[in-house]
Each structure stands twice: as structure tokens, then as C-alpha cells.
Amino acid sequence: MSAEIVSNPTSLTGDLDHKLDRSVVEQIVRQLVSNNGTMDPIAAQQSTQLSTADGLTPYHNGQPDLIVNVSARHIHLSDRDVEILFGPGHTLTPMKWLYQDGYYAAEETLMVVGPRKRMLPNVRVLGPTRSASQMELAYTDAVQLGLDIPVRHSGDIAGTPGRVLVGPAGVVHLDEGVIRAARHVHMNTADLSYYGVEDGEMMDLRIESPACSMILEDLKVRADDAVKLEVHIDTDEGNACNLAAASGFELMKKQPCACQNH
Ligand SMILES: [Zn+2]
Questions:
Q1: CB 148: neighbour CB atoms within 10 A?
Q2: In 3-state terms, what secondary structure has residue 87?
């Protein structure tokens, strides 16, 4: 899945658990329940999607199920930070399973404090834990928090801003790790073959949506044989195309520019 984890999402070597970790991330937390207890419409849509038992992308008539999900603002935590924030011996409690097998939105949320007393009161934690904590926000989240944060792929956090995370049992000062997660698509080997692309390549996604159709460019392919085909975009991108009302998606290998200037 997405790799939001720390470091090198491209390697297909190493032990499976570690790979899963890295790839994790990005998932969708749209499933978040908002402050007033109502469900985000995007989350509601997502909740209808089912996972397969074997972790592979479902194919029908030779075509893969192309799942496009919003990855709402969320936090990845290390085991150490979970214990600091929620108490000694605490482990995350799955609240909602995500499309990728083994990944979940946890019951736990954190308050994130920004400059000049700005804050986000309850940012969802995603599990499982990782080797390093990281927070992924949409641009509008960053504005609300008063931060200027870079667009990065998960795990690529060197030089990014940090922030203060406040939990019921303690506080963690992240020195770095607050990013806007760059759009991307998770693929396994069969999916790579279907689209004729390689790990790290860029693709375009056309979204058919009433009065809001659009093409998102520069989706990075993140290959991992433990994942199912899934595009992750952020809340701003999902809102721009009214993803909840989208009627179709087309994922395309990026074409060279036809003009004479590139
Ligand atoms: Zn992802």
C-alpha cells in the first residue's frame, strides 16, 4: 500500500512486514467520523468497498478494479510514540479497516498544535505502527494549522516541518514529518503488467464526475506485491472532482508532451 512509511518505498526486497509498513500509509481516513458524529460522505462511499481475502487486485473480464480513495489527514505513529501519547503498554485499536489488507483507521486521535495557538483537535491515527511517526495533511489542513508544508511522498520527510502532538497521556514533539502526501497509485506486479508501467513511473488519472471531471497528473506508481490496485489522493483533490459523485476513472501511462517546448 502506500508507502507512507518511512523511507524507500521502491524496494521489493526485504521482509514482508517491513514492506507493508513502508507502504502503508496513505490510506484513507476519510472514514473519519467528524466532530459532530456524522460520517463524511467520502468515508461513507469508501465503506462500501470490500477487501479481497488474498490481498490481490480483483480482476473482472481482464480489467482490474480501479479503486480511488481520499487519504484524509492522518498520523502514523511509532510504538514508542503510541506509549508516550496514550500511556505505557498502550497499543492501537482498529476502528475501521482500510482497503489494503492489514491497515486500519484507529480509534485513537490526537490534537495537533500549530503556531500562534492554531490547532487541529482530533487527527486520526492510522495503524499499524511504523518505525517513525509522520503526519499527512491536505493543503487546507495546513492552512488551518498555520503551516507551510511541502508535497512529499510518504517516508520522504527530511527537512519537513515538525509539530507538537498531544495525546491523553503525553506530548510528542515531532522534529519533522509533516507533509502533504503526493498523489500516487499502489500496484502489485500484475497491475504493473496490465498498465505497462514500472515502480516509480508517473501516471495520469482522469476522473469522470458530474460538472467536475478532471485529470490529475503525476501520480507516482508505488509497487508492492502485498497491495491491491488503489489510487490515493488528498481531501482537497477529492473535493475538487467531487469524488463521492464520480462515475468513472481512467488511469493512463503518462504520455510525452506533444508540444515542441519539452
Ligand atoms: Zn497510498
A1: 8
A2: coil
User: What are 188's three cell numbers?
Assistant: 502489485
Yes or no: say if 41 and 244 are a contact pair by the CB < 8 Å rule. Answer: yes
Q: pLDDT tens for residues 188-215?
A: 999 999 999 999 999 999 999 999 999 9
Give me ligand 1 centre to Cα 176, in Å.
20
CB 106 within 8 A of CB 97: no
Per-residue pLDDT tens digits for 175-191? 999 999 999 999 999 99
Q: Give me ligand 1 centre to Cα 25, in Å.
A: 5
Q: How far is the CA of 254 from the centre of ligand 1 (A)?
A: 19
pTM for this predicted structure: 0.76
- The secondary structure of the chain in percent helix, strand, coil, rounded to multiples of 5, reads 20, 35, 50
CA of 28 to the centre of ligand 1 (A): 8
**CA separation, residue 142 to residues 26, 135, 185 (Å):** 17, 11, 23
Domains of the chain and any CATH numbers = 16-51+69-181 (no CATH), 184-253 (2.40.40.20)
